[in-house]
Specification:
The chain has 2 domains: 176 residues, Vaccinia Virus protein VP39 (Rossmann fold, 3-Layer(aba) Sandwich), CATH 3.40.50; 197 residues, Vaccinia Virus protein VP39 (Rossmann fold, 3-Layer(aba) Sandwich), CATH 3.40.50.150. The protein is 35% helix and 26% strand. It has 17 helices and 18 strands. The strands form 4 sheets. It has a 7-stranded mixed β-sheet with strand order 3-2-1-4-5-7-6, with helices on both faces. Helix 15 links the parallel strand 11 and strand 12. Helix 16 packs parallel to helix 17.
């Protein structure tokens, strides 16, 4: 059980009858609360967390564990108690409150729980400055639990409408998801410009990170264009499947779809905000790609011609390569014979050994002072 959940469960007797968990961690705290007779609903923005929470549930409780930004039925539901788990990115808190404004306005109690190193204390102080009442309920295991409250007048409960206050946070709560899109254009030499949209907290939102830039430069090299899978075949054979693993806001996958329109491009991520960002960008550019959630390659069918990726190696503030290592082990079962893996990573990470263990010979096709691009072919 994650530390944040342990701190929450220390106060379980104070939870009211119907509970909403927003972005719970990768454990089974939902099931633990259900066992006390409290009907609980979870909204998971992380697919790994969703699978962990969902797998521990049974019956009707499973239907109350949801993956996605916000389900319409949840937005209209009544909860006595809402528990917000501190997001990995502090900037996502504002998005939390905006999307859940209607739900939180109807809740009798709202709690915020998180780790100190992820900024829970500074977040609570900021909310207090913005007009929230903030009371610390517990502090243990390097985590804190806060009760957050607003006056009825501030939330507009008296006339069943939000955003009536002149307070900055009142204005923030009445904003919709549309207010948070960050549009930006990427004009990368050798590639068609991309008109992208991203939400707060998504990797490399609003810019092209250096690792992805190096990866895309490699895909432009003549020798790479002649690769039997990534170049001639994909350009000419309709239906060849290319996977962008850890797609973020969609830079790599959407670039490839524009270059190789006949290919079937699939894009996966664990982050619901990343998936929403990629879908929005693809729709705006008229690109037909498949975008879906997957923990590693768990939801990806075999038969891939190529995998191109800038994989994640952080979970919030923690460095964590477990997902990528499992992904590399699974590449062999997902790629067709002769299928290729092209991956960019920080040069200090031992990716060459991990790739070789899965696919055999691996080569470094580009590098700079910070990154290496690896290329391997399934034998």
């Amino acid at each position: 059980m994650e530390n944040t959940s342990q701190v929450l469960l220390r106060q379980i007797e104070r939870l009211l009858g119907s509970v909403l968990l927003v972005c719970p961690p990768i454990d089974h705290c939902h099931a633990e609360i259900e066992r006390t007779g409290r009907e609980t609903t979870s909204i998971c923005w992380d697919f790994q967390a969703f699978e962990a929470q969902h797998s521990a549930l049974s019956g009707a409780a499973r239907d109350r564990c949801q993956f996605g930004v916000l389900q319409a039925e949840t937005d209209s539901a009544e909860f006595q108690h809402a528990v917000l788990f501190m997001p990995k990115s502090k900037e996502v808190i504002e998005l939390y409150l905006s999307l859940l404004g209607n739900v939180l306005a109807r809740a009798e109690k709202v709690w915020l729980v998180g780790e100190k190193r992820e900024g829970i204390e500074s977040a609570a102080k900021k909310l207090k400055k913005e007009g929230f009442g903030c009371i610390k309920l517990d502090s243990a295991r390097h985590c804190q639990l806060w009760e957050i409250s607003l006056s009825d007048n501030f939330l507009g409960k008296s006339d069943n409408s939000l955003g009536k206050s002149d307070n900055n946070l009142g204005k923030m709560i009445e904003r919709s998801l549309d207010s948070y899109w960050q549009p930006f254009t990427l004009d990368i030499p050798g590639w068609e410009p991309l008109e992208l949209h991203s939400l707060p907290g998504v990797f490399s939102a609003g810019r092209l990170d250096d690792g992805t830039r190096l990866l895309l430069e490699c895909l432009q090299k003549p020798e790479f264009q002649n690769d039997v899978v990534i170049g001639r075949t994909i350009a000419k054979v309709k239906g060849n499947r290319i996977l962008d693993f850890g797609c973020g806001c969609g830079v790599v996958g959407l670039s490839m779809k524009r270059k190789w329109p006949e290919a079937q491009v699939e894009m996966v991520d664990v982050n619901a905000l990343a998936l929403e960002s990629t879908r929005r960008s693809a729709a705006n550019m008229g690109l037909d790609v498949s975008v879906y959630a997957s923990d590693g390659l768990s939801q990806v069918a075999s038969g891939l011609a190529a995998i191109v990726t800038n994989p994640p190696f952080h979970q919030g503030v923690k460095q964590d390569t477990r997902t990528t290592r499992q992904f590399l082990q699974d590449c062999r079962t997902r790629l067709i014979p002769g299928g290729t893996l092209t991956l960019v990573a920080n040069r200090f990470l031992p990716y060459a050994d991990w790739i070789e263990d899965s696919l055999g010979n691996v080569s470094v096709i580009a590098e700079d002072t910070r990154y290496k691009v690896y290329h391997a072919k399934r034998q």
